[in-house]
Amino acid sequence: MSDQGDAARRIEELRALIRRYDYHYYVLDDPLVDDAEYDRCMRELVELEARHPELVTPDSPTQRVSGAPSEAFAKVIHREPMLSLANAFSEGDVREFDRRVRAALPGEDVEYVCELKIDGLAISLRYENGEFVQGATRGDGELGEDITRNLRTIRVLPLRLPERVSVEVRGEAYMPKKVFLRVNRERDEAGEQAFANPRNAAAGSLRQLDPRVTARRGLSLWMYAAVLGPDGTVPGGPGPFRTHEEILKWLDTLGFPVNPHRRVCRNLEEVFQFLNEGDRLRNTLPYDIDGMVIKVNNLDQQNRLGATAKSPRWAMAYKFAPEQAETRLLTIEVSV
Ligand code: NAD
């Protein structure tokens, strides 16, 4: 068979495999393979599509946010899409990201904010006049699942803010490592199947029809974004905001949990220094992280860089090299 024919066949194979993995991970909260294996398939697909751009289709998993919302929940239409992040697996990938950013902003200074990449699931919280009114999962990025009642049970979630602002705040829900071990011990004693890792335990616990189950699962949150209007403000709030870091500080003053392990970096060397620190910090944290996120700090620059259908061009997830983390139970191999 021709090179083109081989590539087309392998691309179809990989897409089918990834869709199957996505279904088990996002819909059933029960992954078939570990993240490193998933990332390997995705990377092979990205590379094949880059060599054969004529074979790229808009429905390829490389082009869209994965994770269909479940029929079990009411749907929430996201006012602004909840996107994924482009991945970096090496120093070279991070340098390439920086080169692309600077090429799109010729002659401008670029500052980055580096944060921990929390290994949980993305959620959005909507407040009207300071009151929590609706919470949702990311779903497929356009349509999420309404999990308001479940989110209300999370203790660190502010039900009322000190200011009468109307704002959508986004972040990550996660299960602390200690809680994960406790929940799995209890499941084991009850003869139930253990969760594969804290991320899937968090997703399975939040996407419950009975909020009392969620309440018993000890979930927590780190919030890292607010959806602003076109003028950089939110109704009833301060602003206009100029930087991502200003938003994080404001969220902190409103009482949201905002992760303190972050740094504004003025150049790539400072970014690499923080990435190395994060790698060392990883095993000392009471929750799982699977990498670091690098974001352009200036919001005007973010807007000008824009986004693809899948991820913003102003941010990148630097993924740690795979390791058997202490809270991961096992790698399940399947033949497909
Ligand atoms: P992603 O998890 O690689 O990155 C995007 C997500 O990072 C965001 O949606 C957000 O939820 C999260 N995030 C955490 N901390 C953040 C921060 N500080 N700022 C911004 N975002 C932050 O991308 P994805 O599309 O959600 O999922 C793809 C990844 O999920 C894969 O790379 C793989 O690791 C895993 N996955 C695994 C399987 C499997 O079968 N094992 C299947 C599907 C996906």
From TrEMBL:
Organism: Kyrpidia tusciae (strain DSM 2912 / NBRC 15312 / T2) (Bacillus tusciae)
Protein name: DNA ligase
Positions bound to NAD(+): 35-39, 84-85, 115, 138, 172, 295, 319
Source superkingdom: Bacteria
Family according to the record: Belongs to the NAD-dependent DNA ligase family. LigA subfamily.
Catalytic residues in the record: 117 (n6-amp-lysine intermediate)
Purpose of the protein: DNA ligase that catalyzes the formation of phosphodiester linkages between 5'-phosphoryl and 3'-hydroxyl groups in double-stranded DNA using NAD as a coenzyme and as the energy source for the reaction. It is essential for DNA replication and repair of damaged DNA.
